[in-house]
Amino acid sequence: MAQPHVSCAGPRFALRLLCKGAAWIFRSSPRPAWISLVTLIFLEIVLGVDNLVFIAITTGRLPHDKQHIGRILGLVGAFFGRAAFLCFASFLVHLATPLFTIDLGFYTHGVSVRDLVLFCGGVYLIYKGIDEVRDMLALTESLRPNIRKSIRTRV
Questions:
Q1: What is the DSSP letter of 2?
Q2: Is 68 helix (H, G, I), strand (E, B) or coil?
Q3: HSE-up of 122 (CA within 13 Å, CB side)?
Q4: Nearest CA to 86 among 126, 47, 125?
Q5: How far, rounded to the nearest angstrom, does the alpha carbon of residue 57 sit from its chain's CA centroid?
Q6: What's the CA angle centered on 16, arms 15 and 20, to 5 degrees?
Q7: How far is the C-alpha of 96 from the C-alpha of 16, rounded, in Å?
């Protein structure tokens, strides 16, 4: 029985090639490598959608004849920016040589540049979270008297 001719172009071929490549990665890589790959793919999809929404909102403010070029430049800038950040993250992952060691007796840990960057990023995220919650609570408190006044005027 003759095999049907398979074109090397088109979405089906690309999907088949992607699936074969993913299967090879899952078989040949240690577990943390493919878990990291899946996590990275998920994050890229989420951040890509976020970029599209942001670019659509910001280019909507441009004059109608400039919106197309704004979208193109925004997408190209987002692509190259993301590629630069991924290269930096890849470089950062390999900075695992300990700069100094913390010895607590029962626990010893060599602190590297990667650990310091991750620690600073975590502290920044905690700060931003607390700051956002504090701003939301302040906004709620400032709106509360106005809500009471509007309820009184309706009744």
A1: P
A2: helix
A3: 6
A4: 47
A5: 19
A6: 115
A7: 37
- State the average pLDDT over residues 7-16: 58
Using DSSP's 3-state secondary structure scheme, residue 6 falls into coil
pTM for this model (two decimals): 0.50
- 114 burial (CB, 10 Å; 0-12 / 13-18 / 19+) is middle
Q: Which tokens sit at 152? A: 């009184």
Instruction: Give the residue carrying structure tokens 């999907």.
Output: 15
The SS3 call for residue 100 is strand
Give the whole-angstrom CA distance, residue 151 versus residue 155: 6
Q: pLDDT per residue over 107-146, tens digit each?
A: 888 999 888 988 999 999 999 999 989 888 887 666 655 5
Q: The tokens 């990667």 sit on which residue?
A: 114
User: Could you tell me the two tokens for 135?
Assistant: 């701003």
How far apart CA 71 and CA 81 sit, in angstroms, is 15
